[in-house]
Amino acid sequence: MGKRLTRYSTDTLAGLEGEAAVDALQALLEEFLPLDDARRVESIVLTEFIVAARVNPIFRPVTEQMAADMRQVITQALDVLEVPEPAEEAERLIAILGDFRNLPAPTAVPAARPMSFLYFCGYGAV
């Protein structure tokens, strides 16, 4: 995931507005979702790691760091896009992402999505 997220420097988001901003934010957030085989496997491993951390304290620092990194990336993106209260909005998106991460992955991602993730979250049509 780390390699994929490096493609989304907050510098590339600066100055984006409207549909371009929503599309860029959605592309970033989709990196956290199991939309293909690689991300599905990653999601399974991450989920198992989180479960292990609940019963074995040795894993907790790693899972806490992963959560902090995700929170930081999303908060920074929202801040650059001038979303009001980016830290609070990031928490909401992270909660929704967590719910979506636990859904079975589609066998193929449709080329045109009738309803985007961000539309569902209340960011408008894309």
List the helices and strands and how they pair.
Blueprint: H1 2-5, H2 18-30, H3 37-55, H4 60-80, H5 86-101, H6 117-120
Helix pairs in contact: 4-5
List keywords for this structure.
single chain, 126 residues, mainly alpha
TL;DR?
The chain is mainly alpha-helical. It has helices spanning 2-5, 18-30, 37-55, 60-80, 86-101, 117-120.
Could you characterize what this model shows?
Helix 4 crosses helix 5 (86-101). This protein has six helices and no strands. It has helices spanning 2-5, 18-30, 37-55, 60-80, 86-101, 117-120. The protein is mainly α. The longest helix has 21 residues, at 60-80. The protein has one domain (18-120).
**Beta fraction:** under 5%
Number of helices: 6
Query: Regions with pLDDT < 50 over 5+ consecutive residues?
Result: 106-115
Order of helices and strands: HHHHHH
Alpha carbon gyration radius: 15 Å
Helix content: 55-70%
Give the count of structural domains.
Answer: 1
Category by helix and strand content? mainly alpha
Q: Total number of β-strand segments?
A: 0
Look at the structure and give the mean pLDDT: 79
